[in-house]
């Protein structure tokens, strides 16, 4: 539920809005362990205001994971069985939520549907609101908010390793969905993490069908090569059939196609999905359509501190640029710029607006 590389992976936490009812409001607790917001699971969402008075849809709806990231940055190799000095911070994360925040940071109108535990609902809602994301956070009555331990090796280009407890985030279910979430929405984005559990797969199928019925284009970020390997490439591709945009990392693209060359993998995927934008970390991004790579977008130089969420930053900025009328190539340029900014920060979110 976190990702990497300046063109790379994913992490997120979020909020859905546009008039959608927030399940749980800010409470007196100030941190992820503070007083959680109460809410009723599956509360209905009302019609949204995203899209303005013109009635022209122009918003982005993100459906995905909302988690708490514990980022531990260490310079020395991990010492098994004893202590390793590290700088540790707790920050909001989750692939879906991070994408939502970066899209809002780029000026898009964004709402997010996610599921959290009562332990951190108020904190996550508050953090999302601060980024300009309108959230519908369903409070799970049983599971705690998902948590990801992000081990960041400062001596290896800030490469990161994740220990993931999905918690409530992958317990989204069809009852959490309301077609009203699509009011005023011009694009739907699904975090690939949704496809890694039975209940959230069912929710993703409902959301995808609702978007098709309204003619809303859909994008998917596979999100995790590790979980993708467990699910299986053939099953993943069958689940995303009909999606218009696929945004895999290099490893995910190669895993989905069984080829080792990143460009060949992107080209092969674009025979199944109309537009494939393959994030290549420090090598930028590849844009592929109709079975061939049509653009190679260079990365933006950056001094990496933490690659967690860099791929989410790319995806959020890319989608915001498409919403603003940009073509895929220019949108990929914006994605690479956002990815570069992301790796220079700790955690997967953009800086909060002043």
Account of the protein in words:
The protein has 354 residues and is an alpha/beta fold. Helix content is 28%, strand content 23%. Strand 6 (146-153) and strand 7 form a beta hairpin. The model is unreliable at 8-30 and 33-53 (pLDDT under 50).
Q: Sheet with the most strands?
A: 9 strands, mixed
Number of helices: 9
| Secondary structure: helix percent | 25-40%
What's the helix-strand series?
Answer: EEEHEHEEEEHEHHEHHEEEHH
List the helices and strands and how they pair.
Blueprint: E1 59-63, E2 67-74, E3 87-93, H1 95-105, E4 109-117, H2 121-130, E5 133-140, E6 146-153, E7 159-165, E8 185-191, H3 198-214, E9 218-221, H4 225-231, H5 233-239, E10 245-246, H6 250-257, H7 262-269, E11 275-279, E12 285-289, E13 292-297, H8 310-323, H9 328-343
Parallel strand pairs: 1-4, 1-8, 2-6, 4-5, 8-9, 9-10, 10-11
Antiparallel strand pairs: 2-3, 6-7, 11-12, 12-13
